[in-house]
Structures are given as structure tokens and as C-alpha cells.
Amino acid sequence: MARSRRGRWRTLLAWTAAVAVALLLIGAAGQWAAAREASFQADSIRRAMEVHVLGLRDAAGKYGYLPRTAGMHPDVFDVLAHPRDPAAQQRANRYIEEVNRHAGSDALYLIDLQGLTLAASNWATPQSFVGESYANRPYFIDARAGRSGLFYGVGQTTGEPGLFMSAPVRSEAGAVLGVLTVKISLRQLQEAWTFAREPILLTDARGIVFLSSVPAWMYQATRPLAAADLEGMKRDQQYGARTGFSPLPWTVEREEGHPGYLVRTDIGGKTRRFLALDEPLPDLGWTLTVMADHAEVARARERTWMLGLLCAGVLLLGGLYWQLRERRFAEQRDARRDLELRVRERTHALDEAHAFRKAMEDSLLVGMRARDLEGRIIYVNPAFCEMTGYGADELLGRLPPYPYWHPDDVAQHWLHYQAMMNGQPARSGFESRLRHRDGHEVITMVYTAQLIDADGRHSGWMSSVVDITEQKRAELRQRQNDEQLQHAQRLASLGEMASTLAHELNQPLMALSNFASAAKAFAEQGNQALLASSLDETVAQARRSAEIVRRIRGFVRQRTAGTEDCAVAALVTHALALLQGEMRLRQARAEVRIAPSLPPVRGDRVLLEQVLLNLLSNSLHAMLATPPEQRVVEVEAELLEGRVHIRVADRGSGIDAALAEQVFAPFFTTKAGGLGLGLNICRTIVEAHRGRLSFANRAGGGTVFTLELEISAP
């Protein structure tokens, strides 16, 4: 009894130790999974940060050339020399207005050395800068001192925030005569950030948030502000009349050895934790902060713990399962003996059935081929012989490689053969190319199953071989026709946008011409510094032109990338980017309302962009007779009953009820010079994605096209 008691104690201690070790291992694995997930999140944030930094530098540097280039014009020198001459001022106003219109910036204006604006691109508007004093602005002070100025703040005249870049206007002797300033709005960047799933914010050198995907954080400070900072912002009027900047509602946690830092805050009434990384932009004086949801780290730890507990439970239940398995095997042996008895009783009936089945197989149009466990052909029906060109006497008893294997696909044939011999044939069948005896190719679908003999034993493999050569040829012809129609529609869309694309390319080409002329003048003067600067700007504009051409070529190409997960906001943004010039030409604008949480759709990105581009282009054409202030294309998307609904609405004249049934018909168009294939191809593309395209007239005038698509699998 004592020996038995000691054995039970040893067993209990062993189980206790095993459980303790298992729990320690599970806990360590959970911590490792959390650290690994945090590292993945940090890498993802860094990749996203690189994209945002490129966008910020592009927005800040795209117009850096403008103050220096525009300041070289004689009209600018003339108005600085004769500030009270109305004719000189008018010439300068019109010149600056024209330059600003071609460049696409928000405003361009000329300031004298006392800070008074002499000429501006908005001279004819109610909020004209002409006559306004900007002597307190840092960008004016820097440019007057001979340096380039860069300053982000709220406009003193318009109240609209923007990025101000300035450059001194110099005489031939190098003396500073005035300051030329360009204002650029970062509104598009702010709107793009609203679609981000996680918070993004941009702070100035004092730590004040001036751009953010979370509107509630705007103009709040990341750290306490000194009295000197508040006095400086009040003097510069950087953020208008604001005198107080409350701290961000954050609780920051920093952990040794972990990337970035943790931020705990309330968003939308919910307390959330984020992993945040900062990226200083010293050339701009800003700091970019990108965050990711830290809940994924906790979920990774919990998943690992649950998996560890599950594995421990499986091991615990393994012993019980083994006992049940042995009992089940005994029952199966008894059942097998009964089955064998029944099989012997029905052998005669099965032999007759076999004879009947053979006669039936010989009459089939589908090829039948049987092989034994060694891969030797033991049966072929006449349809298979006709398919390969070899007689039954030439095939029976043959081992691989078989004479009808295609010489170019021998490796693939061996792969399928080995899978079959290993007991893993393709359950849904596989496509195979054969070589007929006379040399022509035969495309087949092969379905293989185990061959069971009369005693219930696996004796080989039976394959059904279906000739699909004509079907494959028909599918290829149909696919080529569809691709040609889609390519023709893309070319037609670009044909309609040709003048707009020429206008898009005209801006960098004009800048190239200006910088080339300036470089020639600096070369003649021997001014190496300005010559190098002009040549650098020339290279930058050439790259910009190449980017426009690359974007167009990507849309026109015949072949597409194939099926992938597509973010709806990205599809709409890319389509609007191709139409940006045409919308400016037609004085139209777009209003996009897409929730950041909208799941992606599954499809071909280029084809879906083609559908959106066609719908947006049709909306612009439908509003030619609409007053310019009402030319708005509204794009919104939402998730309804497991499908994404994308609506494109215009404010045109709508579609006549008599023409409603012909809208999607091929070669039907109301557009002068149109092919009449656009909407027909759009519907074909959408239906190929298992979606639906419909339209309806909207109240008050206009049309709404609705595109329904399936979301990607989780």
C-alpha cells in the first residue's frame, strides 16, 4: 500500500510539473507573439510613413520654383520700380494671375520691402491681397533678408490655412527689391487622410497639430508651450486669432526596447491604444506621426495562448482517443467480416453488372482508362483510343511514359502520375495536353478515382478523359474579343481626354522652358550657383512630365494585373486623378464620401478603374449645360447586405425614359463621336466580377449609376 501511495504521488507530481512547464511555455510563446506582432506593426508604419513623406515633400516642393522663376519677369521689376504707376501695377497683376493659373497654385503675390502687397493673382476678387501688409509674416522676413521662406499658417486675409513659400526678387546687382510669395493649400492631403484607417497627424516645430486625420486633434499641442512661443505665434498670426492651444488628450507610454511609443486616447467615444512612430522632416520644420491599432498585439498574444491551451487539451485527450479508437477498430473488424460475406453472396450479380458496364463504357464518347497499382494500363475504351490515335493492343500493358504524352509537358505528366500513385489525385480534375498519333494536340480534362475490385480492395485507378479542345479554343477567342473591346474603350476614353492631357503636360513643359531660358542666361553671366539650381529644377519638371505619361500608359496597357484586393477609395482616387485636368477644364468638382472602414473588393484593379472612369466621364459630359457652380459629381460607397454599393451621381438632365432600355445596348450612344460601347463594356466587366450595374434618375435632375461588387473574403 505504501508503494502504491508513493507511485500515485509521483504520478501527481509529474502531471503537476508537466502542467506548470506547459503553462510557462504558453506564457512565453504569448509574449513572443506579441513582440513579433509589434515589430510587424512598426515595419508597416514605416512603410506607410515613407509614402506620406513622399506626398508631403511633393506638395511642398512642387511649387518651390515658382517665386524664383516668376520674379525674373520685366513686369515684376517695373512695378517694384514704379509702385504708384497704375499701368505697371495692372500689367504685374495680369502677369502674376496668368502664371498662377497655369501653375495651379492657390495664390501668387508680390510684396515690396515694407511688406505691402503690390500685385496678386487674386487682384480682381473680393479677398484681394493687393494693398494688404504682411510685414509680420516670417516668410516675408526671411525673403527680405535674401533667403527662401517657408511657413504654414492661416491666411490673414482669407482665413484659409495654407503653405506659404517665398523668394527674394533681386536686381542684376543682387540687391533684394521685393518678395514674391506663393500659397499652396494642403486641403487635398487633408481630405486623403480622412480615408486612413488609423490616425495620422502633422505637427509644426512648436508641437502644434495643424493637419490630422482626427479633426478633434487640430490645433492642439503635443507639449506645453512657452510664453515666447505663444508671443511669436500671436505676432506672426500663424493660426489666426487663436491664443490658446490645449494639450492633446493622450496618455503616452514608452517601453524600453520597443519601437515607437504607445498612445492611449478616446476616439468616437471609445478608448483605444495605438503604436505611434514619429518621422522628423527637418527641411520643412515638421514632424509626421503615424499610428497603428495596438489591439492587434494583444489579440496576437491571446491567440497564441488559446492555441497553446488547445494543444495541451489535445494531448490530454489523446489517450482517451486511443482507447476509443481501439474499440472502434474491433467493431469495424466485425462489420468487415459481415460485409465480406455479403460480397461473396453477390459476386455473381456483380460479374453480370461488370459485363453490362463494359458494354456501356465502350459506347461512351468520354475516354475511359484504367491502370493498376504499378501504373500499367489495363483497360481503355474505344473513345480513348480515338482520342489518342493508338489502338487498345498498343496501349494495354504499357508503363509510363505513355506514347500519347505531349513531349513539351512530360514533367507535368510525371507530376500528376506521382500524385496519383501517392493516393492524392486531383479531386476536381486537371487539364492535360496530349499528342495524337498523327501529331496534332488534344486538350483534355482528366478525372481520376480509385478502382475498387469485387473484394473491395484498391486495385488501381480509373480515369475519365474528356476532350475540351474546341471549348478551349472558343474560350480563347471570346477572351481575346473581350480584351480588344475593353482596350478600344480605354483608348476612346483617352481620346476624349486628349486636350486635357495636353494641358496637364503643358504645365511642366512651360516650367522646363522657363528654367532652360534662365539657365542659359545664368550660363552667359557665369553664375554657377543659379545655373545649377535652374538645371535641378529642369530635371524635376522632366520627372513630373514622365510621371504623367507613366500614369496614362498604365491605364492604356492591353494586359491587366489580374485579380487582387482593391480598396474602393484608391480606385476612386486613381480614376479622379486621370480626370483631374478635364474637371478643371469643365469647371467641375467631385465630392467623395467613402467610409475608411469600408472593406476592399475583389477584382481586376485596371478593369474596375476603367468602369469608374467611364461613369465619371459620362457624368461630366451630362453636365455640359449645367451652370458651373452646380457641376458636381458625387461619389459615395457603403456596405449593404454583404456587398459594396458605389454610386456615381451627376446633376445633368437625366436619361429619357424612352431611352432607358437602350442605355446598356452595344453601339448605342448620345455622345457625338462616341463608340456606343462604354456602358456595355462596363456592364460586361461588372458581371464578370459577379456584380451588378444599374442606374436611376435622381430627384431634381441628374442620374445615379450604382455599381454593386462583392467584398474580399476575410
TrEMBL record:
Instruction: Provide the alphabetized UniProt keywords.
Output: ATP-binding, Cell membrane, Kinase, Membrane, Nucleotide-binding, Phosphoprotein, Transferase, Transmembrane, Transmembrane helix, Two-component regulatory system
The record's annotation in Gene3D superfamilies points to: 1.10.287.130, Histidine kinase-like ATPase, C-terminal domain, PAS domain
Compartments it resides in: Cell membrane
For this protein, what reaction is catalysed? ATP + protein L-histidine = ADP + protein N-phospho-L-histidine
Membrane topology field: Multi-pass membrane protein
SMART domains the record matches: HATPase_c (SM00387), HisKA (SM00388), PAS (SM00091)
| Stored InterPro entries | dCache_1 (IPR033479), HATPase_C_sf (IPR036890), HATPase_dom (IPR003594), His_kinase_dom (IPR005467), HisK_dim/P_dom (IPR003661), HisK_dim/P_sf (IPR036097), PAS (IPR000014), PAS-assoc_C (IPR000700)
UniProt domain PAC: residue ranges: 428-480
* Gene Ontology terms describing biological process: regulation of DNA-templated transcription
Protein's UniProt name: histidine kinase
Q: Which gene encodes it?
A: fixL6
